[in-house]
User: Which sequence fits this backbone?
């Protein structure tokens, strides 16, 4: 199989906040149809990288190409229509809206009804449009198994469900590339397995390219096609999971120097 | 607390259409139609004073709903709402006098003019938030008040402006009994518009901007556009309310639209319930009835030792203001979600009776 053209390419991204270098000359690309993970210790610049792609931050240097188009200077809100969706590390749902409305907000750029036609509702096609999109949103709700809470205010849900609702909202954008910032953080094993299954299904059956930040090595190694490792804002490795895991730089970043880890940990009873 | 999902058993929704209605249950729809029916009969039985209260509730309710869309749903702030209410009142009178447009057309047109004025003054909202925006809208209040006092061509200056009653097919709606129906019509239309707005794309976008503007932006929502639009819609409602007010009183004076009136609108929205459509009307009703209740209490106590000690008869005006302030404070402390939330709790109580959840 020929190498597919990358859907996302970051070229020499640097990000500085005053004297703090969050990212230094990071380049990578994400191929169409793959699950690409960014890993690294805390403060390595993973979320900063995702923020540069999604538009929250503007990189100090370098550029971001999405689907062949330079999006470095494009407004954050215009990236949704290009096919870029994301979830947040610290939940960012619309707390007072129902789950259903949260997901319908994800359809924002696909809906055409302005406020005037919205006010008239029955004439002008707003109702038809709402119902048609509701049908598609229900498919997402079915897929993520959140039918039972669809009318509940998102702010009242337990953590694991909120994560799922946030994923549903990002999926509702119909993104070509979905950025997941720690989708499994703070979950128990069962929830993690569910979430991993959703990510794999999104990738394989819904045809979405996934860029994921995740700390759970087991999940990352299991489901990622390629992995990039950041440390102190620099890229230290990129490649297939097993290659990355074997990389001496990565071992040093995660585990410290070799002689430091030869001491076996005390067995805790 | 999943109050929003309380439905009577046996209420199955087989279609998405049935699941997107404004009124959630069949009984609530019946109650709504019955309520409208009863209101239609009101002019036949109620006196002019009672009707004038209802008309005031309706007019202020429309304007309060506009402010609620801005403050409650979009999370912005405006302490210049009365000025926009005034723009609507003068615009409608001016359109009728200068261009001889029939009054029934002047009212919506006044709404549009006010919306445009609101968009201009709302432009800072695209960038400002919280306290800074409050000050910017305060500036709008004073600029517009000053404009009312100086622009004689528009407002008639300090003398004020006499307005014509609404006439339709030769019939003049110049009495409480008839004007009541005009206000009722506009209340229904404007509240249905708002309910429709909030269940479609742009309404959801407004709430999204309020709840989490960063993720709203990621979802493709243009923050500046919706923050400004919210001002436009709020002003549209204020303008229509103001126009109805102008053709009800048949005289508009420049002093009426001061900052105290703006604060009263905020009070209505807070007492009624931020982010609640029906709450706007409840808040307006509360605000209209409060002085009357205070008056009634004072009358009931007249001659008693309390009256002699506090001199209720002469200080009634202060008492009204104080009651208003006390009501706002008490609501903020004990019921920050307003009357609308209290009403939901009452409904839930009876639905679940005799159990508590």
Assistant:
């Amino acid at each position: 199989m020929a190498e597919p053209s990358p859907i996302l390419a970051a070229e020499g991204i640097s990000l500085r906040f005053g004297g703090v270098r969050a990212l230094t000359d990071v380049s990578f690309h994400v191929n169409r149809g793959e699950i690409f993970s960014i890993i690294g210790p805390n403060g390595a610049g993973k979320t900063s990288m995702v923020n540069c792609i999604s538009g929250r931050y503007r990189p100090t240097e370098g550029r971001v190409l999405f689907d062949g188009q330079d999006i470095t200077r494009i407004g954050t809100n215009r990236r949704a229509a290009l096919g870029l969706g994301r979830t947040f590390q610290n939940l960012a749902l619309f707390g007072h809206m129902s789950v259903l409305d949260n997901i319908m907000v994800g359809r924002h750029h696909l809906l055409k009804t302005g406020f005037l036609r919205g006010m008239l509702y029955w004439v002008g096609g707003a109702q038809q449009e709402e119902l048609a999109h509701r049908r598609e949103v229900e498919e997402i709700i079915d897929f993520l198994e959140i039918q039972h809470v669809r009318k509940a205010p998102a702010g009242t849900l337990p953590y694991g469900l909120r994560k799922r609702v946030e994923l549903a909202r990002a999926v509702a954008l119909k993104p070509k590339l979905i950025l997941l910032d720690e989708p499994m953080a703070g979950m128990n094993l069962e929830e993690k397995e569910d979430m991993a299954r959703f990510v794999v299904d999104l990738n394989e059956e819904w045809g979405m390219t996934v860029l994921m930040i995740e700390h759970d090595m087991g999940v990352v190694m299991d489901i990622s096609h390629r992995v990039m490792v950041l440390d102190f804002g620099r890229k230290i490795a990129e490649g297939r999971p097993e290659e990355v895991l074997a990389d001496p730089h990565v071992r040093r970043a995660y585990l410290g120097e070799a002689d430091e880890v030869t001491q076996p940990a005390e067995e805790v009873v | 607390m999943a109050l929003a999902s309380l439905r009577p058993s046996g209420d199955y929704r087989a279609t998405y259409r049935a699941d997107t209605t404004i009124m959630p249950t069949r009984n609530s729809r019946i109650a709504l139609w019955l309520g409208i029916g009863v209101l239609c009969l009101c002019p036949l039985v109620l006196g002019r004073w009672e009707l004038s209260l209802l008309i005031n509730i309706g007019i202020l309710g429309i304007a309060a709903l506009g402010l609620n869309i801005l403050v409650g749903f979009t999370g912005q702030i405006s302490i210049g709402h009365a000025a926009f209410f005034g723009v609507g009142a003068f615009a409608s009178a001016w359109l009728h006098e200068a261009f001889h447009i029939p009054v029934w057309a002047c009212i919506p047109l006044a709404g549009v003019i006010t919306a445009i004025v609101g968009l201009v003054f709302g432009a800072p909202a695209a960038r400002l938030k919280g306290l800074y925006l409050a000050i910017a809208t305060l500036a709008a209040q004073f600029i517009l008040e000053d404009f009312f006092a100086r622009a004689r061509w528009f407002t008639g200056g300090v003398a004020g402006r006499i307005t014509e009653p609404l006439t339709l097919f030769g019939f003049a709606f110049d009495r409480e009994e008839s004007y009541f129906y005009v206000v009722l019509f506009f209340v229904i239309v404007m509240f249905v518009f708002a309910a429709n707005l909030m269940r479609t794309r742009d309404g959801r976008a407004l709430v999204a901007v309020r709840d989490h503007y960063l993720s709203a932006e990621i979802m493709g929502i243009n923050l500046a556009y919706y923050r400004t639009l919210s001002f436009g819609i709020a002003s549209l409602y204020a303008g229509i309310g103001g126009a109805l007010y102008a053709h009800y009183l048949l005289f508009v004076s420049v002093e009426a639209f001061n900052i105290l009136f703006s604060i009263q609108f905020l009070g209505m929205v807070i007492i009624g319930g931020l982010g609640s459509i029906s709450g706007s009307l409840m808040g307006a009703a509360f605000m209209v009835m409060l002085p009357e209740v205070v008056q009634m209490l004072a009358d009931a106590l007249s001659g008693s030792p309390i009256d002699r000690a506090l001199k209720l008869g002469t200080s009634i005006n202060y008492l009204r203001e104080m009651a208003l302030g006390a009501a706002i404070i008490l609501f903020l402390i004990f019921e920050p979600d307003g009357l609308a939330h209290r009403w939901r709790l009452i409904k839930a109580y009876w639905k679940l009776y005799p159990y508590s959840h």
